[in-house]
Amino acid sequence: MPITAKGLEGIVANTTAISDILGEQGILIYAGYDINELANQVSYEEVVYLLWHGKLPNRAELNQLKADLVRYRHLPQEIVDFVSHAPKDANPMDVLRTAVSMLGLYDTVEGTDAEANQQRAIHITANVGVIAAYFHRARQGKSLPPIRSDLDEAAHFLYLLNGEEPTPEAVKTLNLAYVLHADHGMNASTFSARVTIATLSDIYSAVTSAIGTLKGPLHGGANEAVIHMLLEIGSLENVDAWVTKHLAEKKKIMGIGHRVYRTLDPRAPHLQRMAIKLCDELGESKWIQMSERIAAIMKEQKGLNANVDFYSATVYYSLGLPTDMFTPIFAIARTSGWTAHILEQLSDNRLYRPLSEYTGPAVGKKVLPIDQR
To answer: Residue 30's beta-bridge partner residues?
Structure first.
């Protein structure tokens, strides 16, 4: 008899060699590597290669990937024009979603084989950061910095966003965030990408589906919600009363708990340490102190741990990144994982077609003439 599981919880929909989550143990694996082994030891580009090819690159392979990413950084002028003239008050995720979809209109790669789609994956991965940064500049009425070829992905995004050379510490911090967010099993946006590509649609449509899914506050938008929560609380002295009130009203505390992890999210401590360091350097300890107090209360009263969104919010805010750019940054990092799953899905494809449990009236109703209804 078919099993009914709302949200497909506990249902194995496919196999993958890309990443795995051991929720009971608090372990995240990328192609055989524990995330704690990768964090602060490899670059984001190395992780991109790992997710796409199942192994870490040697120096020649890494240099080739970096060269390919640089080569694809130049957006078609029509997309630059769209980003430049999009409504200034548009949600950056809406702009990113639309611009990635537009990329498909200017695809010059021929064929639909694995090699062609690999090139498209590079193209999309190289462009998401450019799109997000250019929109932020354009909505402020600022010039769009020229594309550079001498900066890696994290550094290039920060340069485009701010129009100036980023500090080594900022680059290191964002690179770590990219590594930690690159993939995370069969999460909602990855699943939507695989469902779309399984119809043998194109890779641009699949990534567009993923971006639309990530936009939701229950998925990628959680880190933005965390900083709004901290701003609403305002000070360390207000934390206890605010949390007590929200728990009494059975409201969700953003950034706390996780759908899969039953213990600590292994990504959280890395960003927690980075948040503490950044706050100390800035001489602004309020945000991390508030965060730590919220985390302590939730652990004590509910047995729940802070997750990666909880600390990434403080990290991004401390870097001076605009709040509504938090989710696009998540999307930039996760594009590597989405495209890896898309390529894997195509390598052994089967259309997703789950069942549903019908709960409507039993069959047997008769149609009455319209005047008798």
So the answer is: 19, 33
CB neighbours of 121 closer than 8 A, spacing ≥ 6? 52, 203, 339, 340, 342, 343
Fold of 222-318: Cytochrome p450-Terp; domain 2 (1.10.230)
Catalytic residue at 258?
yes
Residue of 92, 349, 44 whose CA lies nearest to 214: 92
For residues 214 and 88, give the distance between their C-alpha atoms in angstroms, rounded to a whole number: 21
Residue 220 carries which DSSP code?
Answer: T
Answering whether pTM is above 0.85, one says yes
Active-site position among 136, 181, 270, 309: 309
- Distance, in Å, from the CA atom of 152 to the CA atom of 131, rounded to the nearest integer, reads 16
Question: Within the chain, which residues score under 50 in pLDDT?
Answer: none
pLDDT recorded at residue 194? 97
Q: How far apart are CA 80 and CA 86, in angstroms?
A: 10
| Predicted pLDDT of residue 1 | 60
Indicate the CATH number of 14-217+324-347 among 3.40.50.300, 1.10.580.10, 3.20.20.70, 1.10.10.10: 1.10.580.10
Per-residue pLDDT, 109: 94
228 is a catalytic site residue: no
Would you tell me the crossing angle of helices 308-318 and 326-347 to the nearest 10 degrees? 130
Q: What is the pLDDT of residue 155?
A: 97
Using DSSP, state whether 263 is helix, strand or coil.
Answer: coil
* In the chain, ranges of CATH 1.10.230.10 domains: 222-318
Q: Rounded distance, CA 39 to CA 55, Å?
A: 16
Which pLDDT does position 275 carry in this prediction? 87
State the catalytic residue, choosing from 258, 265, 270, 341. Answer: 258
Closest CA to 335 of 47, 31, 24: 47
Q: What are the angstrom distances between the C-alpha of 333 and each of 162, 176, 220, 233, 290? A: 19, 10, 11, 29, 27
Delimit the CATH 1.10.580.10 region(s) of the chain: 14-217+324-347
Number of Cβ within a 10 Å radius of residue 269: 17
Please compute, for residue 86, the number of CA atoms within 13 A of its CA located in the half-sphere on the CB side: 26
